[in-house]
Design a protein that fits this description.
Keywords: Carboxypeptidase, Hydrolase, Protease. This protein is an all-alpha fold. It has a domain of 41 residues. It has four helices and no strands. The protein is flat. It starts with a helix and ends in a 13-residue tail after the last helix. 14% of the residues are buried.
Length: 118
């Protein structure tokens, strides 16, 4: 999922990701869910209040528009991950694939018109 987001979401930075389980993080939900329940893909996604230091949003404050865009790209990322991990058993209606491509190629104004249920 992080690799997919790094390819599609301009506000996501793979270089800022950390997959190390530090002692101070052992009681966090993502680590507990991973260790005790066995969830393979358990992540924490954080946002900034100060702005971005990379990509097309470098030097800009993060606002509602950018957060909506990230939410849409996250949904598209989940959709892609699902297709990549179980392609034979998972077929999508063609209009969802069109929406996926639109969201990847467009700005966040498209995100205001679609609702995703995954």
């Amino acid at each position: 999922l992080p690799m997919i987001l790094s390819q599609t979401a301009p506000a996501f930075c793979m270089g800022s990701c950390s997959f190390v389980v530090e002692k101070s993080k052992e009681s966090t939900a993502r680590v507990v869910v991973w260790r005790e329940i066995g969830v393979q893909r358990s992540y924490t996604m954080e946002s900034t209040l100060c702005g971005c230091d990379q990509g097309k949003y470098k030097g800009l404050q993060i606002g509602t528009r950018e957060l909506e865009e990230m939410g849409a790209k996250f949904c598209v990322g989940l959709l892609r991950l699902r297709r990549m991990t179980s392609p034979l058993e998972y077929s999508l209606p063609s209009n969802l694939l069109d929406i996926e491509n639109e969201l990847i190629e467009s700005s966040c104004k498209v995100t205001r018109y679609y609702t995703f249920i995954i």
